[in-house]
Specification:
The protein has 165 residues and is mainly beta. 12% of the residues lie in helices and 47% in strands. Strands 1, 2, 3, 4, 5, 6, 7, 9, 10 and 12 form a ten-stranded antiparallel sheet that branches. Strands 8-11 form a two-stranded antiparallel sheet.
Amino acid sequence: MEIERKFLLKALPDELSNYPCHHIQQAYLNVDPVIRIRKENENYYLTYKGRGMLAREEHNLPITEEAYQHLLTKVDGNIISKKRYLIPLDNPGFKEGYPAPPADYSLTIELDVFDPPFAPLILAEVEFGSKEAAEAFVPPDWFWEDVTYCKEYHNSYMAMKDTSL
């Protein structure tokens, strides 16, 4: 199960280049349900995602580079390319009434910097262990708008968007 929230940002964190970064290319064979192929650095995956915005079923299957290249010829829409920075979020904030996590609790911000045709879009995603934690999460000050429930910011939607305008 994937449980995540998505955010637009007010500003980028300082020294972004100090964080681990993955180069991601992904494309979609189907969007309902989502069937995606992804190249992440030198690793390749076929992913199934069920319906949902905050929480949904997700299964990843490793595939070979040859399988990825073959499936790439069969995709619909845009191929999405982005850099993903992994930023630790130590001692994240949660709304009052949510049980306090352990002192050493941390989350990871997955900060996606999109290449054209979606640049200058930058999205931050944070994954959680439960819906309750996701709903109680208080984002850092440098986050701006919560777009978790906006389909326009889901990669599968973006892949089908007409970018010729």
